[in-house]
């Protein structure tokens, strides 16, 4: 098999590198066919990045990465075999296909195995504005991280230490191809600046931080602003208390509210459903949320965090509702899980794309919802993994602030919040428009009318 040497692409442009990955993919597919595979698919990727870490004004690490990888899956009827390699030498690529074929010949038939249907393959590839490379040099990245940390440490005399600051940039190229004749090319960039600070002394020390991330450097927050925000959050946590155990409203800040959407996605994912390990079995078409609740998937959003024209199976993505007027409209399925359930793929092989959770009313932010809540708990941090996906039981360590008469007051920690996700979903009373833009799940502050808060007071 005559494969173009990867070194030849190192100095070439992005399009040339994508073409090289596509050419390798085609040769691998051809070789799989010659070995008798009835179907095959190939994923090729190339990632490059720079990451620096500083602490207390000194450089700790500077890391430059350059990775490539190939994954091959072949099907002999309903038997499947997969193999992967990081070595792009021709002999290694040939051996990878042969290993995948050998595995497939020794596996059992799986009625759900195989490529997604050919007619579902993406045919349109809109410009998604996801490629914004940043020629960031190590000394520049160090300066950014140092400026971020210094701004935080200089913000308040009570900032006593630092867990460090970082600046990073990365870019990725990938090609997915299969024996239907589908070739999908993707490219993307990501950049971030972050810092974590420590305030106080001895047993009274508290830690918090902040970060900014974006696909394009111009969308990043200023490093000094990130440092000051981290300092503000850290100082606000000083001298926390616990709370008396009781039932009360709980307000989730935007950066933790998206975890609740994550629990929903896990429960309605195809893998959990066909394994019957979800508390939302047979929930399609049922009312899970208040009637005003809307969640949409927007895979073609320009400069979206997870925008894509096709999913991990090559299936064309599309804008669609997940929740409409509080009712679950569909599950999250790739072609394999869809076949296991006797349903149609939702173009979510590899996960969801950009999700948008609509605000319950215009102009709502965290402070407005706190005033609406009156008395309760504002959660800004969650700890632990106490969520049972089978029953929906929810119990996690939390930190945040006591809210009294609509005012956000003293910090609290050492508490646990508990409930059942099905009940929590139904008890959502408000969602803000103060979206945390650092995630592919766009959601603002979220208020749940009643949860159990367990503390030590």
UniProtKB/TrEMBL annotation:
Metalloprotease TldD/E C-terminal domain: residues covered: 246-455
Pfam families reported for this sequence: PmbA_TldD_1st, PmbA_TldD_2nd, PmbA_TldD_3rd
Alphabetical list of InterPro entries matching this protein: Metalloprtase-TldD/E_C, Metalloprtase-TldD/E_cen_dom, Metalloprtase-TldD/E_N, PmbA, TldD/PmbA_N, TldD/PmbA_sf
Any one of the GO BP annotations: proteolysis
Residues annotated as domain Metalloprotease TldD/E N-terminal: 40-104
Domain Metalloprotease TldD/E central: residue ranges: 132-238
Molecular functions (GO terms): metallopeptidase activity
Entry's Gene Ontology cellular component terms: cytosol
The UniProt record lists the keyword Nucleotide-binding: no
Keywords, sorted A to Z: Hydrolase, Metalloprotease, Protease
Claim: Protease is one of the keywords in the record: yes
Family: Belongs to the peptidase U62 family.
PANTHER family: METALLOPROTEASE PMBA
UniProt name for this protein: Metalloprotease PmbA
Gene from which the chain derives: pmbA
